[in-house]
Amino acid sequence: QKEVEQNSGPLSVPEGAIASLNCTYSDRGSQSFFWYRQYSGKSPELIMSIYSNGDKEDGRFTAQLNKASQYVSLLIRDSQPSDSATYLCAVKAGSAGNMLTFGGGTRLMVKP
Amino acid sequence: GAGVSQSPSNKVTEKGKDVELRCDPISGHTALYWYRQSLGQGLEFLIYFQGNSAPDKSGLPSDRFSAERTGGSVSTLTIQRTQQEDSAVYLCASSLAQQETQYFGPGTRLLVL
Fold first, then answer.
1. pLDDT band per the 50, 70, 90 thresholds, residue A30
2. Is the Cβ of A101 closer than 8 Å to some Cβ of chain B?
3. Nearest chain A CA: its distance from B82 CA (Å)
4. How high is the pLDDT of residue B101?
C-alpha cells in the first residue's frame, strides 16, 4: 500500500467549474500537508500548505484537512484552462526528517 | 531572489558511465533535498542535508548513488556505473531550517542509453 494515494485521473472539468482533488495518507502521525502543481516538463510549484484540521483558503484555492480520516483535499474554484496540470499531494511524516512523501499526482484538465 | 538552480538541465550518458548532477539552493536555505521522478512514477525521496548534520541517506536506491554538500551550500549527486533504470528527472529542493516549505529547482533530465 502506497503511503500517499491519489487518483491519477485525468479529472476533466469545464471552465468555471469547481475541481476537487483528493488525497489519502497512511501515516497517522503526519503533521504537514502540501499541494504542488506540476506542469508538463516543469518542476513542482507549491500551491498550498495546511497543518490543522479544517479549511484553508488562498484565492481560488481551498485546502481541506481531516486528520481523523487521514484525508486532504484541494478545491479549485472557477477553474481555468491554465489550471490544467498534475497536482501532487505531499505529506511530511510525523517521525524525524523533513523529507516529503508524494502521491502519484492527479492530472487535471480544464476544458474551455 | 534567485531560486534553486540545477545543472546540467539535460544529460545523456551511456550505461556504465558515472554522472554528476549539481544543485545550488536558494541563498540562506540550510536544508537541501534530492528527489527523483521517473516516467509514470511519483516523486521519490533520495537524500536530505540539514546544516552540518549527517545527511539522511535513507532514500538512496543503491550504493551507486551518493551525494555531498560542500560548505553548506552547493550539492552534487553522483551516480556511478549508471543503469538504464536510472533514467529519470532528478529534482533538488531547498528550505529554510525552521520552515517546511520546499522549493524545487528545474531538475536535471538524465537519460541512460
1. confident
2. yes
3. 23
4. 86
Residue with the three cell numbers 556505473: B81
Separation in Å, CA of B23 to nearest CA in chain A: 14
Residue B37 CA to its chain's centroid (Å) = 11
Residues making up chain B, counted from first to last: 113
Amino acid residing at A11 = L
Q: Is the dihedral of CA A52, A53, A56, A61 positive or negative?
A: positive
Place of cell 551511456: B14
> Under DSSP, is residue A34 helix (H, G, I), strand (E, B) or coil?
strand
For the record, the C-alpha cell of B15 comes out as 550505461
Closest CA to A39 of A106, A84, A5: A84
Rounded to the nearest 10 degrees, how much is the dihedral formed by the CA atoms of A32, B32, A104, A73?
A: 20
pLDDT below 70 — which residues of chain B?
Answer: 1, 40, 98-99
Say which amino acid occupies A103. G
Tell whether A102 is within 8 A of chain B (Cβ). yes
| Closest C-alpha among B59, B63, B56 to residue B90 | B59
Nearest to B45 among A43, A46, A100 (CB): A100
Q: How far is B76 from chain A (nearest CA, A)?
A: 18
Question: What's the grid cell of residue A68?
Answer: 481523523
Range list of β-strands (E), chain B: 5-7, 10-13, 19-24, 31-37, 43-50, 65-69, 75-79, 88-95, 103-104, 108-112
